[in-house]
Amino acid sequence: MPGMMNRIKQFARSPQGRRATEQARRAAADPRRRAQAQRLLGRLRGHR
């Protein structure tokens, strides 16, 4: 899907996309948020 990839690239380069990327980076650096994300992923994968 080249069209979808181009849209994602455009969003990532936009100011809004840069803000979202930075926010995700900060959340990933926070140990509590990282543990919360791991639990969510485990639940989505079916591992409890």
UniProtKB/TrEMBL annotation:
Q: Which stretches of sequence are listed as region Disordered?
A: 1-48
| Record's compositionally biased regions (Basic and acidic residues) | 19-33
Superkingdom as given in the UniProt entry: Bacteria
Record's protein name: Secreted protein
Its lineage opens with: Bacteria, Bacillati, Actinomycetota, Actinomycetes, Kitasatosporales
